[in-house]
């Protein structure tokens, strides 16, 4: 199994509070991604990173920011959480091979009350 | 933009029945195609993949063939087991998209004894 650890695995917070989710990898892969999973939508890309300090927006980036100061860590921050951000968040990594295969973490379930 | 459409679930089957999950895609280039599986409480894991037209991906008794003429990548298994109960996601990756995956909405499969 790919070495991907997400923390926290579960979090309940209130509207308007900041939240940071962490993804840590031990595979030294260049690419890292944050997806959210919602019923009826599958997984949608929030942000991704193609190297240290190199990040870009995905399909549903509004209300989210990311940072990658080290190869192994990719942080997702909700500056002011809203109920619409209640979701399961998945981190994924890739070595950038030409098949585009991703390896996923176990997910972080966030509930915003 | 690229998109993936897969049949809605849940699909309920008896053990040893034949399973088909339809997946069609829209893409401007020549994407790689994937089936991912998500078991309850877990992250997604790659089930099989195909990188060019007419390729057949196979794993754990599941098969899917990349059909460029019908833009399809249907998943099949000849005899399902209770342990195959999961959510199945069809996805594509365009080589111009840094390995980012476009996912279908997912199809839940429930296999009963």
Describe this protein's structure.
The complex is a heterodimer of chains A (113) and B (113). Chain A has strands at 4-7, 10-13, 19-25, 31-38, 42-51, 54-57, 64-70, 73-78, 87-94, 103-104, 108-112. With 113 residues, chain A is mainly beta. In chain A, strands 2, 4, 5, 6, 9, 10 and 11 form a seven-stranded mixed sheet that branches. A four-stranded antiparallel sheet of chain A has the order 1-3-8-7, with no helix packed on it. Chain A is globular, with a radius of gyration of 13 Å. Chain B has 113 residues and is mainly beta. Helices cover 0% and strands 50% of the residues of chain B. Chain B has no helices and twelve strands. Chain A binds chain B through residues 4, 31, 33, 40-45, 48, 50, 58, 90, 94, 96-107, and chain B through 4, 32, 34, 36, 42-46, 49, 51, 89, 93-95, 97-101, 103-106.
Structural class of chain B: mainly beta
* Largest protein interface, residues of each chain: A-B, 26 and 24 residues
Oligomer: heterodimer
Overall mean pLDDT of chain B: 92
CA-based gyration radius of chain A: 13 Å
Distance between the termini of chain B: 41 Å
Q: Helical segment tally of chain A? A: 0
Strand segment count of chain A = 11
Q: What fraction, in percent, of the residue positions of chain B are helical?
A: under 10%
The helix content of chain A is under 10%
Count up the helices of chain B. Answer: 0
Q: Which percent band covers the strand fraction of chain A?
A: over 45%
Q: What is the general shape of chain A?
A: globular
Order of helices and strands of chain A: EEEEEEEEEEE
Radius of gyration of chain B: 13 Å
What's the N-to-C terminus distance of chain A? 34 Å
Mean pLDDT of chain A: 93
Counting DSSP E segments of at least 2 residues, the number of strands of chain B comes to 12
- Shape field of chain B: globular
């Amino acid at each position: 199994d790919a070495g991907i650890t997400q923390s926290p695995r579960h979090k309940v917070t209130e509207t308007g509070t900041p939240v940071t989710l962490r993804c840590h990898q031990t595979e030294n892969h260049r690419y890292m991604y944050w997806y959210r999973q919602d019923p009826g939508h599958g997984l949608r890309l929030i942000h991704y990173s193609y190297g240290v300090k190199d990040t870009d927006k995905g399909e549903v980036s509004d209300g989210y920011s990311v940072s990658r100061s080290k190869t192994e860590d990719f942080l997702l921050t909700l500056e002011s959480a809203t109920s619409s951000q209640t979701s399961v968040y998945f981190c994924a990594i890739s070595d950038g091979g030409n098949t585009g295969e991703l390896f996923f973490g176990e997910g972080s379930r966030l509930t915003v009350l | 933009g690229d998109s993936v459409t897969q049949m809605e679930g849940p699909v309920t089957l008896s053990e040893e029945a034949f399973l088909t999950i339809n997946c069609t895609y829209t893409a401007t280039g020549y994407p790689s195609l994937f089936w991912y599986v998500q078991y309850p409480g877990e992250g997604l894991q790659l089930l099989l993949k195909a990188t060019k037209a007419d390729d057949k991906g196979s794993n754990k008794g599941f098969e899917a063939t990349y059909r460029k003429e019908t833009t399809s990548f249907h998943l099949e298994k000849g005899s399902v087991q209770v342990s195959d109960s999961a959510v199945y996601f069809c996805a594509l990756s365009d080589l111009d998209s840094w390995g980012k995956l476009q996912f279908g909405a997912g199809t839940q499969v429930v296999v009963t004894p």
